[in-house]
Each structure stands twice: as C-alpha cells, then as structure tokens.
C-alpha cells in the first residue's frame, strides 16, 4: 500500500513531511535511481507559480545531479499538460511537475510522467516509495545540497503552444472568450494561445505573487469569471486551476458547466463525425447519473472508474475509448494527448462552438444533471471504510433513504485528509440523506 503517493502524485504542505527539504532530497535521489534503472539520463522539470515551487525544484535538481543525472532541464512555470507533452515530444526519460493543482498555495506536490508522457503507474510509485525510504536519513541527503542545479536552456513552451494551436481548425474568430488563469500556470500560454487563434480575449487573475494561486479564483471559484462574462458580453468563460489540468466553463447566459457537460458535448460531436473510437466514454464514480442516462440515449456506453485521472486513462486504454474525464474538469482527449489538459479541452470546446455556429448553452441543452449534495469530513487518519461498523451503518441508512431514486458515493480524498460524501437524485430533497444511525 502506498503511503506517500495519492491519486495525483505526492502532495502536502510545503516545508512539512513529505515535502520538507530532507524528504524532497530523498525523493530526488530515488527518482535518479528510478531513471537510471530505466536506462535513462534526461529529466525535465516544470512548476506552477507557488512560492515554494522554486526551492522544491532546486532540491530535486541537486539530488538528481548528485546521483549522476547530467541532463536536468528546468522549464520554469508551465501547465502540467505542457510538461507531459514536452517530456514525450522532446525525448526525455522522466517529467517532474511541481504543483498541488487546485490546492491553496501552502500546499505543493510532485507529479511524475514517464518518457511516453503518461503518469507513472501505481506499481512504479510503490517502487519509488521504497527507494525514497531507503534514501532518507542517509549522508547523501545532506551531500546532494551542494550539487549543481538544473541546466537553464531556451524555453520549450513554444512547442506546446504550437501543438495547442493546431487543434483549433481554422481558428476561433469571432469568439469572445474570458480566461480566468487562476494566478497560475496558464497565465502566459492561455491568453497567448487564444489571441493567436483570433479570439477576442478578456483575462482575469493573471498577476501571480506566489500566494494568490487558486485564491478566490479559477475553477473552484467561478463568481469572478461569471461577472466578467456578463460585463463584457462574452460568448464563453473559461476557468483553469493552478496547473491548468482542469477547466470549468461559464456560458454566455451565465450557466456554470463542469466536466460532465464537456463529455456530453464532445462525445456527441465525435460520434457524429465518426471519431469516437470504441463508441464509449469513461467517467468515474463521481460522474453524474444523469450523464450516464443521457449518453445511453445517444447510444454511448459509460465506463466508471475510481476517482483519479490516471484510472480514467487506464480504462480508456483498456477499452479503446478516446474520451474520458471527471466532473472536476479533468478531461482526457486520448486521440490528442496523454493526460488531462484544461487548455486543450477549452480549445476543442471553443472550436466546436465556432464550427457548429452554436452557443455552449445550445450544445449542452440535452443534458440536465441530477442535483448533487457534496460534503467532506476532515479526518485525522484514513481508517478503511469497510473496517468501521459505525460508518458502514451510517452509509447503509443513508442509501436506504435514497432507495432507487438516486446514488451515493463515500470515499477518502486522495489528496487531502477528508472523507468525501456525494449523494444525488432526480429531486434535491431525495439527495439529502440524514446522517443518523
């Protein structure tokens, strides 16, 4: 069982275990060992705009260099999907992204990508964990701090920008688009891309200071983007999270759309064009029941997985599906990229609007999500749910109240010390089970 890796890399409060300086050095030593056993020697590092990201990058780079990894190249600030794309396109053996995604600035994380641009598998993560533990409390942890840092080289971001540009067909003119770049990694590439494609662009939350990433902005806080859409009569509002692997949207009428809406719109379009390989779509246990029913009406089966984009991708590769994602806005376009890419998803949605000559409201009119109730209980430790009779009794009682009119999911967060609870049904009242034994 993994102890350091969650559903999306290693994550925690910067400066505290497992992201204290000593453990970060041990992680770097373990990653050098991992790259070496794969016969590799080239590592690419990217990061978001958190104040802790530069020193974490520095410690990892020093540890890698100490263990003989000579080619360590630092991209600086770049979206996670950009790091994954460039790792594969430029022939690197390992990509390291330093980001805690949608979490507040105090948190940070380390995400790993193989040379093929895919997130490292659970088995590989467990192997790396064992190596980290073996390196902790060794003299090498202190010695690696004196090693050279990463090579500074010309930015490779232009390659990623060109890749994104090619996905927009003939361009996005005359679309009026609002971008909430979340004071994060999308701040440079996002506006530059949409301007290049001919859209009229309004940008908000584009002044990162190391601490304002995700603060009352981005995909978790759509209020500011909604105001910008209304004030500027925009056709579409796009909100990213800190590392831009997620995206949510605001329609021209002010409606908020999540990843389930995007799966609905894109799957119908791709099926009509004959490009929905396997004819299936992959979601998670959190995918709205109404989407599953709407897709069935379209003749599109939905496959469900545990929460986490890596599990979505695994199911896509097994089933042959080319489209999958999560309500959070983590969407994988498997015929175009190896990981969730919020900017790419936004471009494909915008391209669809221009090509079809419709509004985003029109494109999702056939899908009405069932109301959901989401809650989270903070926990000191994650006791397996099946080992808690009290919790099982509460869950059983709540599910009995929902009966066949809805659905309930109880799970631990893979990135935070939370027990997450979701209930949904056709009627909101039916989706509010009473938490009483």
What percentage of the residues does DSSP assign to strands (E)? Answer: 15-25%
Q: List unreliable stretches of 5+ residues.
A: 429-437
How widely separated are the two ends? 31 Å
CATH topology description of the largest domain: Alpha-D-Glucose-1,6-Bisphosphate, Chain A, domain 3
Radius of gyration: 22 Å
Give the overall average pLDDT: 92
Question: Helix fraction?
Answer: 25-40%
Number of domains: 4
Please tally the helical runs, counting DSSP H or I stretches of 4 or more residues: 14
Give the number of DSSP strands: 18
Architecture of the largest domain, CATH level 2? 3-Layer(aba) Sandwich
CATH superfamily of the largest domain: Alpha-D-Glucose-1,6-Bisphosphate, subunit A, domain 3
Identify the overall geometry: globular
Strand order of the largest sheet: 1-2-6-5-3-4
Structural class call reads alpha/beta
Q: Mind telling me the CATH class of the largest domain?
A: Alpha Beta
């Amino acid at each position: 069982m993994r102890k350091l890796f969650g559903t999306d890399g290693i994550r925690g409060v910067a400066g505290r275990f497992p992201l204290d300086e000593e453990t970060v050095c041990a992680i770097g030593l373990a990653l050098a060992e991992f790259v070496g056993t794969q016969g590799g020697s080239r590592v690419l590092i990217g990061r978001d705009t958190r104040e802790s990201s530069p020193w974490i990058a520095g410690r990892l780079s020093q540890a890698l260099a100490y263990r003989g990894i000579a080619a360590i190249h630092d991209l600086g600030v770049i979206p996670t999907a950009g790091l994954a794309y460039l790792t594969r396109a430029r022939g690197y053996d390992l990509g390291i992204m330093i980001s805690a995604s949608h979490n507040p600035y105090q948190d940070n994380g380390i995400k790993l990508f193989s040379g093929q641009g895919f997130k490292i598998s659970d088995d590989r993560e467990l192997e790396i964990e064992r190596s980290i533990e073996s390196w902790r409390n060794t003299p090498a942890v202190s010695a690696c701090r004196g090693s050279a840092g990463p090579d500074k080289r010309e930015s490779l971001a232009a390659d990623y920008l060109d890749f994104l540009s090619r996905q927009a067909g003939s361009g996005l003119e005359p679309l009026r688009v609002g971008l909430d770049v979340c004071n994060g990694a999308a701040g440079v590439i996002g506006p530059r891309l949409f301007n290049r494609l001919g859209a009229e662009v309004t940008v908000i939350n584009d002044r990162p200071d190391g601490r304002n990433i995700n603060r009352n902005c981005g995909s978790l806080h759509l209020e500011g983007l909604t105001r910008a859409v209304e004030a500027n009569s925009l056709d579409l509002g796009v909100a990213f999270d800190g590392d831009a692997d997620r995206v949510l949207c605001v329609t021209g009428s002010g409606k908020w759309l999540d990843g389930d809406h995007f799966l609905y719109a894109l799957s119908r379009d791709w099926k009509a064009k004959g490009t929905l390989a396997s004819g299936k779509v992959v979601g998670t246990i959190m995918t709205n029941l109404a989407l599953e029913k709407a897709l069935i009406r379209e003749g599109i089966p939905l496959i469900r997985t545990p929460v986490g984009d890596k599990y979505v991708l695994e199911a896509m590769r097994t089933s042959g599906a080319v489209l999958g994602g999560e309500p959070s806005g983590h969407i994988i376009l498997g015929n175009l990229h190896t990981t969730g890419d919020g900017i790419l998803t936004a471009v494909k949605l915008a391209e669809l609007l221009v090509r079809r000559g419709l509004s985003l409201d029109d494109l999702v009119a056939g899908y009405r999500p069932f109301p959901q109730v989401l809650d989270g209980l903070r926990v000191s430790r994650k006791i397996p749910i099946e080992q808690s009779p009290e919790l099982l009794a509460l869950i059983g009682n709540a599910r009995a109240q929902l009966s066949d009119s809805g659905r309930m999911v109880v799970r631990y967060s893979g990135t935070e010390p939370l027990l997450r609870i979701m209930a949904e049904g056709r009627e909101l009242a039916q989706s509010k089970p009473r938490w009483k034994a």
